[in-house]
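Task card 7
Instruction: Convert sequence to structure tokens.
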Amino acid sequence: MLKTLIFLTLLLATKCSTFHGDQVVRVTSSTEDVKRLNEHENFHLLDVWKIHPTLDVRIPANHVAEVKSFLVEHEIPHEVLIENVQELISEQSEHPRNIRSADERSTSEHERGKLDKYLTYEETEAWVGAMATKYPDLLKVEILGKSYEGRNLTAVYFNYREGNDLAFINCGYHAREWIGPAICLATIDKLVEEARVENWTRIPRNLSFIFIPIANPDGYAYSMSMTTTRWWRKTRSKFPPSVCQGVDPNRNFDIDHCGGESTSNDPCEFELYCGPKAFSEKCTAAQRDLMRRLTNVKLYIDVHSYGEYIFYPYAYRETPSSRQDILKGIVSEVSDSIFNSTGHRYQFGTPGQLLYAASGTGLDYFFERENFACSFVIESRGQGRSGQEYGFALPYSESDGAVQDFWVGLQTFVRAVTEGKCEQ
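Output:
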């Protein structure tokens, strides 16, 4: 039944471009409740956003009444998280952040460049390029290659020095998770401020960072286009003779590829298609090649949403790694630091302990195959400042908390590197 939940996809999403009247409903995901809902005749039309500790589903407008009636009839506890999905999509796309007035923003913030909305792929490329031009002593941009559709696979280096330890931060593998690229860009911005204004009070000078702001640029651009579906997850590659499109890049690594749980080798059936072979996707192959020519990579963080989780290896197997106690100790400290700063408690553990096992992930590949001693996934929050749950539709105007969670957590991850906890 778990694989049924994981692999659900919304068939109607490929036929319409707006989501007026769609609702997101949260269901208490006890085994019996989920089983009853799974038996609903139109359950295959629901878009499952989250499966633990609650079941969050998006319901198409023309099925809202019947599904909610079913929940009431079977006494399944639930609440409406989002009354009208399209309103949030419009807010995500059109309205810049309006949290502080211009007078309240620091001069250095104006000088660095404006981040006031979810940037498109083109806007992200322009922002990164402008920042690197303005701060050549701190930032360097490298094009790792081209995507399937010809977009840049861009890496951004911060404070790169020969001999420095390296932290690698990946954002945006799953196209619909717009908060990931936003977190990467905001963190680059904060690091520039740290170096120029704060005199390196939070980040050591002998640590360098590599960011992949948009790891899946084709999928991200497609998700932002709104011409088909805001909730696209995969890449946009094609592998004839199949007419279906897209691979989940976070199932495309050479680590139990297409095996085990939470993956599929059918290009047409599921959102979790692993690809015809490991590294079939240009974005995953480019990251593999980059990491193989670098030394001193101590820390890997893959940014996703949503759920408030921090994962450490393994995702593909139950047998713990030899470093599990160390990794668990690090993420426990990260969780505590975030809670103490923002009041949000991130659960931590292996993916199998908290959600489900997964094969072919970057988390496991870089840990086991490339020998990164510290490898983590952080699933950011879908909540806004007021506590309202938005899931994947988190408006940029409500994204400060997710950005701050990551910034606080990153400082704790960095401390683990400086304390020698990320040595093999």
